[in-house]
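Dear colleague,

Following up on yesterday's call, I've attached the two folding results inline so they're easy to grep. Please treat them as preliminary; we haven't cross-checked anything against experimental data yet. The first protein's sequence and structure tokens come first.
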Amino acid sequence: MGQNLDEEIAALEPELREIRHDIHRHPELGFQERRTRDVIIEFLRRHGYEPRTLATTGVVADLHPDRVGKTKTIALRADIDCLPMPETTDLPYRSVHEGCAHKCGHDGHTAVLLGVALLLARHRDSVPGNVRLVFQPDEEGTQGGGAPVMIRDGALTDVAEIYGLHNWPPLARGLLAVRPGPMLAHVHNIALTVRGMGGHASEPQRCRDPIVAAAHMVTALQTVVSRGLGYDGGAVVSITQFVAGTTDNVIPGTAELGGTIRSFEPEATKRVLERVREVVEGTAKAFGVEANLELREGYPVLLNDPDCAAAVRRVAQQVVGADCVIEEGLPIAGGEDFAYYGREIPSAYFLVGAGEPGGSPTCHHPDFDFNDAIIPTAVGMFMGIVFDRLDR
């Protein structure tokens, strides 16, 4: 990372903030990111790229399309979708779409990768291999996840490695987190319907109360990790939905529970899933109710390739300083469909600290806003990775 490039990144920051704010103002859900796609395509064409559309609203572009298959290609990925949730800020660029908001920072990730695209275009002749820019829809999985569709449509064809990043408010600005191996969790979703026999609330003895049975299941499921895996756990089980009844004097016939399981190692995953099934079946039998349990597999565990993670660490030591590159707090129990790329080719994913003194609203909070101050760090990381990996 030379002084001149650092100065270029700093000079580019105001334009990238403006792009980010525009995308923030017009959020779009997974596979609906048509305006965002068009903004990306127009920008890339203006800077000499020949972008292609994949997965309906995804975009890929090669820095040197004539070198694809002839030289090493690495890919850089940004997610472009928003969340189906409200925005509670009074920002001048707040969402204009009710119930849709960029509350995970994908607007910032997109702006960062566009900045990288511009800088790579300026220095095209000095980049020895090829860089593929990957702008991916539906990371939030509102329609099942965009990464598998991008892979199916050829996003990784002739790509040797892929890198991704995420802003992370729980981590102080100026820090960067990366490690080899598990970075984010394997996700399973819980869908549970408990069927009993309803009746009048004054005569519970004539009923098979699904609420009481389901409440005991919620309590018992909290022991799956604490009593099933031991002190180092390596998994999380959270019940996040409990829906039952329509009025105060009727015991309903059914109760519905929803939740999530997060895990990092195959053996822990296997054990947790077994224990969840045992707890639900045993509790249902004890209370004389029926339980229909579905454990739906979501995103796989995100595994960083050791060599790729080492490259990120090398670059980060130059960008943020050796003392600011950490592994503490990793892995985290979030899920990410970047994991699908890592199943296909070597990859690395890292977290860029975005927290400010006094605390910052975290991702998926209605008050969250991407911290524009980290744009230079994120751009610098991607640029450094390009030259580190293509010089080898």
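Below is the second protein, in the same order (sequence, then structure):
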Amino acid sequence: MNRLKLTILLGSLAALAPLSTDMYLPALPLMHGEFNVEPSAIQLTLTMTMIGMAVGQIAAGPISDRFGRRMPLVIGMLAFALSTFGCMMSNSIIIFLIFRLLQGISGAFGIVIARAIARDVCQGADLTRFFAMLMLVNGLAPILAPVIGGQILLLTSWRGIFALLAIIGLMLLISSIRFNETLPDSMRAADVVSSFKNFGLLMKDNYFFGHCLMQCFFGAAFFTYISGSPFLFQNIYEVSPQVYSAIFGGIGAVIALTGALPARLAGRVQDIKMLIWTIIQAVIGSILFFCCVIYKAPIEFTLATLVITVPTISIFGATSFSLAMRKHGNMAGSASALIGFFSMISGGLMAPLVSIGGSHNALPMALIMLIGYLGTLITFITMIYSKHHRGYLFMKNS
């Protein structure tokens, strides 16, 4: 499989997260009426998916380090397609939540194995470029998903959205079956137990753990935007699901364009410099967004602050993942799993808190985003930046 086809496949696999969370966002304010539950219960559907993705990555990483990338990927995509079909057929919120959890767990195999494959075939600045390309391909999902979801709602109910997701899962299953293995037998873990032990070794690496914590804080802020934006724009600013999907897709377009920067700058600008300026921009943008919410600013001002803040995810993701995994090529699956776990679990836990003040109050959303980005900055200063002055990444590259 050539590099272009590999990039498209891995980008599509990595896009399972935004596809699973973003495509049905325009339907969130409508679904609580059909299921006859509170908005916070509907936001639990996001929580269950993200928790599933977090837990699933913890399993997928060691399994792929032991058995290779291809077979776990095939099984994961099959389970994703089946659980998505289960979501479509659900008639109660409890059954729907269960299938959303299973959808997240199975989708996690695609997410974590995509990053592990990237580490199998790339390293150094080339790894940063490849991660950036993944983020660029991945950035198409937030653009297209809510727009497609909004249009589907014009024709049918939210169930049509999950029907399309099931079809996407089947297409990825076919592509996974045709995928060529990238982890040779000589590089695989001796057994799954020893593969899980890699987690302990990784957690003892303060630099790697610092990136995990940054992913935790940044993920909390980003997924707070994901779960809160439908209510912010549709309930507070009173736009239609179609207009909201266009707004969300527009910000997604900026995410995709921003994702091209690390690929262009890799090798010319240090990853650590791209990372720090990205975090600073996110902090400044979240402060401005908080002020817009406090003073009930017009939608144009609020939208501008989100355009400043949210697209930083693409540069942050590419540079942080690349820096964190450079020393851990011999356990790429486990390293990818831990980083993915921290980036997802916080978002899942924060999603229900977004509506704690009611479906017409955006203050919790703005506050959680601000705290998340500030937490990222503090972690960077205390656990990451000083290591680069001591040449950490050159001590024992792998």
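For the second protein, one point worth flagging: Residues 225 and 365 are 7 Å apart (CA to CA).

Best wishes,
A.L.
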